[in-house]
Design a protein that fits this description.
heterodimer; A: 598 residues; mainly alpha; two-stranded antiparallel ribbon; 15 helices; 61% helix; globular; B: 286 residues; alpha+beta; 5-stranded mixed β-sheet; 6 helices; 10 strands
Chain lengths: 598, 286
């Protein structure tokens, strides 16, 4: 058996390298603002991401108002609408989810869960946040320049992204697209600083005994997602730089000969499809940059709250690695009807459907973790269950869109919108909520309010499902995405308009529930029930830290030494139903060892 | 009500509700009007295979919650791995994937293989309108280039190419196609990306400036259908509409006879400008 279960020996080799002295803050400014402590940086990242995420959320309300009640709101015109869809997508995918999972959860959890005092490059880590903040600032600034932000869709496809006729690119009002591209480039620079930190910390700063195959799946998910991001973001970076040159200097990387409004433009010889390849070479791994941390975190939530080890740990690790690797050879499934050589379809459909196998296996193992468990239906558990439902629902529609010929009628319809919202919007956000309910006591020393949490959970889960399930069927009908209004058609029945109105009402309700959640976070900081030490009785290291919240340096005088994996729940013969990772294998765990080997 | 029972019931209702919505909601495919019923069949097959997995996973989870909700003093079962079970599940999933991919690739092969006897027409997109070109009596479309595009030659047809002279040009009007004839649709754009899509045809492809893309279909039902742009192309994207009429063979011939050729179009434009210049001359001589 691999060393995921207690090893036969308590002998952990002595540390070869002395502890490096940490940077200690000397003033209020260096402690709370220009902080080099990963926990503070994590909270800075998370707060910024959530703040800009709220802007994205509000834009979704405005979009839904337009879709549910067209011609009712004079203050939303086509230009506004296309700017909302663009900014909403960009904000949610990159500035919220990527930043929150890696910059937020990554910073908070990596050092604590691998048993390190901090990230290995604390100064660069601090810089990472400030560059990210600048990227967000520039994104926000683009909303206030003449002409407003870009309305090219979050995919920013040229030629239209940089030509008149698209919001943010009209003559004399073209600041929108330029600021968008600069903001993206800065985001990537900032992310790279943080990302190198996360990877090197996982590889180099694990405490003694914490082998890779004993890492909690949360860390595996964040670790592999960070590697993906480090390899994928450069493609977007060069794409953004090349498009900026096309727009400012008149180069023609992505611009063929074009006649617009009767005038021949000065471009010529470039390829719009080249940009799509660069974009999706980044864009598809991006899906997994968001999904893999969610996979990891949800595994831990399920295991801790079901009081059972994760089922098939090694298979889960390999599935994360294989999914990550495969995610680099499936990108053109976003381009089946782009006009690229149609023979590519055979290859990309095959690779895409192969990814379904390790992904399905993860789903099976999550549900098998519940088998013969002792399930606590806590809020994190409820969110984890809701993740399974929405992720399976959103994942199977990926099998439709990935299967090249099935994608032909469905691409660019509302089916696609429903699919990616379910699989990389709703499902990962449900994990974010579960994770916040789970780790809030660690971060603040108090519990989030249960009643508010229950209301938040049920409205969010059932509501989000009721929003996105029917949208698939609008797509089957042939309703296109990115349409300001449908106007007259012969194929859309009146009932579809009623459905749109219903979806809008539910969307506003789900949005309101998020305000309750934010209130809960604020309120519980002062008034929440004081959390007992390790309130969920979890086995992983972060709960063994020096306090709740953990102090500077994370652990006491000595770093913990790890003797076992993070999933020793329900070990037969052990006095408690869980054994923390830093408990030596003599005594309590020995019988568990035997039980497993038989 | 016991908490485990309630959560299990809700999960079960989500699964049951999804299935009920699938079968009984009024929103489904727009009735098809082309040969691509194979695509609809592949979608329905995919619904069945994935639907079974979806329901199985949720019902299994609901059962676990019902059966294994927290009880004081109970321990969960400790058996971290079960190779045999994991291999079974992997194999079954692989079979399911092959079951969907095989018909999918088979139909894709048909989609990218245009029948040799197919007719042709060309769709040209520009912000935010459609125009169409048919090959005329010789059955061949004339070559085009952006440099030839001007007021009198909006399609940019090569004036020296004899094949282009009899091309039929349709702008600002409905496109007609004959029923039961395979047709290759050639796609061109002058400015930004567009996408020619008729929901009843099920087939689409992006139109990319600088290149010619294509797909093919065989209309199978007469009627008048909406053409919509399916690739975001600027603020007028949602208003870029057109109509296509699938005609019986005789109706189609009657319509075809009324269309103007490129040569006629050029002659009229010349007559027009002659008239204008003689008018101007007359004005000048006054």
């Amino acid at each position: 058996m691999a060393d995921i279960t207690p090893t036969t020996t308590d002998q952990i080799p002595a540390a070869e390298v002395e502890d490096v002295e940490l940077y200690h803050a000397k003033s209020w400014w260096t402690k709370y603002v220009f902080s080099q402590d990963a926990k503070v940086i994590a909270i800075q990242y998370s707060s910024t991401a959530i703040a800009i995420g709220l802007v994205g959320l509000m834009m979704s309300w405005l979009m839904r108002l337009q879709l549910g009640f067209p011609e009712s709101f004079a203050f939303i015109d086509a230009t506004d609408y296309y700017q909302f869809i663009t900014m909403h997508g960009m904000i949610m995918v990159i500035y919220l989810l990527t930043a929150l999972f890696l910059g937020g959860f990554g910073n908070y959890l990596i050092p604590l869960m691998v048993g390190a005092r901090d990230m290995v490059f604390p100064y660069v880590n601090m810089l990472s946040f400030w560059v990210y903040l600048a990227a967000v600032g520039i994104l926000v600034a683009s909303m206030f320049v003449p002409g407003g932000p870009t309305g090219a869709g979050w995919t920013l496809y040229p030629p239209q992204a940089i030509l008149p006729g698209t919001p943010g690119a009209d003559p004399g009002a073209g600041g929108g697209i330029i600021l968008m591209l600069i903001s993206l480039a800065l985001f990537i620079i900032g992310f790279t600083m943080g990302g190198l930190n996360y990877v090197v910390t996982v590889l180099q700063a694990r405490t003694r005994g914490m082998t890779l195959m004993r890492l909690p799946l949360t860390i595996w998910g964040i670790f592999v997602a960070t590697i993906l991001a480090l390899l994928a973001f450069p493609a977007l970076f060069v794409g953004a730089v090349m498009m900026t040159l096309d727009r400012i200097l008149g180069t023609s990387f992505f611009m063929p000969t074009i006649i617009q409004a009767g005038e021949q433009l000065s471009y010529g010889g470039g390829s719009p499809i080249l940009f799509q390849h660069l974009f999706w070479f980044f864009g598809h791994p991006e899906v997994y940059i968001v999904a893999l941390p969610a996979f990891g975190i949800v595994s831990d939530l399920l295991s801790v709250h079901a009081r059972r080890h994760i089922f098939g740990y090694r298979m889960m690790v390999w599935a994360i690695v294989i999914i990550g690797a495969l995610s680099f050879i499936v990108w053109a499934h976003h381009m089946y009807v782009s006009g690229m050589n149609p023979w590519f379809g055979f290859f990309f459909a095959t690779t895409t459907l192969i990814i379904a196998v390790p992904t399905a296996l993860k789903v099976y193992n999550w549900t098998l973790t519940l088998w013969r468990a002792n399930i606590n239906l806590t809020l994190p558990m409820l969110f984890a269950l809701a993740f399974i439902v929405t992720f399976v629902n959103g994942g199977i529609t990926g099998l439709f869109l990935g299967n090249v010929v099935v994608d032909v009628p469905l691409s660019d319809t509302m089916f696609v919108v429903a699919h990616f919202h379910m699989v990389m919007g709703v499902a990962p956000i449900l994990v974010v909520f579960g994770a916040i309910y789970h780790w809030y006591p660690l971060m603040t020393g108090r519990m989030l309010d249960e009643t508010m949490g229950q209301i938040h959970f049920w409205i969010t889960f059932i509501g989000a499902y009721a929003i996105f399930l029917p949208i698939h069927y609008l797509g089957l009908l042939g309703v296109p995405r990115r349409y300001f209004e449908m106007g007259e058609t012969s194929f859309i029945p009146a009932s579809a308009h009623d459905l749109n109105a219903f979806i809008t009402v539910v969307a506003l309700l789900v949005g309101a529930a998020q305000m309750l959640f934010l209130f809960n976070i604020m309120w519980s900081m002062r008034h929440g029930k004081v959390a007992e030490k390790n309130p969920w009785k979890a086995a992983s290291l972060e709960w063994q830290a020096s306090g709740m919240p953990p102090g500077h340096g994370n652990f006491g005088a000595e770093l913990p030494v790890v003797y076992r994996w993070a999933y020793d729940y329900g070990v037969p013969g052990a006095p408690d139903d869980f054994i923390p990772q830093n408990t030596p294998s003599s005594g309590a765990a020995a019988s568990g060892q035997e039980a497993h080997q038989t | 009500m016991n908490k485990g029972f309630f959560v299990a019931l809700m999960l079960f209702l989500v699964a049951a509700g999804t299935v009920a919505f699938h079968f009984w909601s009024p929103w489904w495919f727009t009735p098809i009007a082309s040969n691509w019923g194979y695509i609809d069949d592949t979608i329905i097959l995919t619904f069945w295979i994935t639907g079974v997995v979806f329901v199985a996973v949720i019902v299994f989870s609901a059962y676990c919650i019902l059966r294994f909700s927290h009880k004081e003093g109970r321990r969960s079962e400790y058996n971290p791995e079960n190779k045999k079970l994991e291999w079974w599940l992997t194999s079954l999933t692989t079979l399911g994937v092959i079951g969907m991919l095989t018909p999918g690739l088979f139909v894709w092969n048909q989609y990218v293989t245009v029948p040799e006897d197919a007719d042709q027409f060309e769709v040209m997109g520009q912000q935010w309108q459609w125009s169409f070109r048919l090959p005329g009596k010789d059955g061949t479309l004339g070559t085009t280039a952006v440099k030839f595009v001007n007021d009198k030659n909006p399609f940019g047809i090569n004036p020296k190419d004899p094949n282009g002279q009899d091309d039929l040009l349709i702008s600002g009007d409905d496109l007609h196609v004959p029923i039961d004839r395979p047709v290759k649709v050639l796609l061109r754009s002058l400015d930004v990306l567009h996408d020619f899509y008729v929901p009843e045809f099920r087939a689409k492809m992006d139109m990319v400036p600088g290149m010619v893309t294509y797909f093919w279909l065989k209309p199978t039902r007469t009627g008048k259908f909406d053409i919509l742009c399916f690739e975001l192309c600027g603020v007028g994207h949602h208003a870029m509409r057109g109509k296509v009429v699938v005609d019986s063979a005789s109706d189609y011939q009657a319509w075809l006879a009324k269309q103007k050729t490129f040569a006629q179009f050029v002659r009229e434009a010349e007559l027009q400008s002659e008239k204008e210049s003689s008018l101007a001359a007359a004005e000048g001589s006054k």
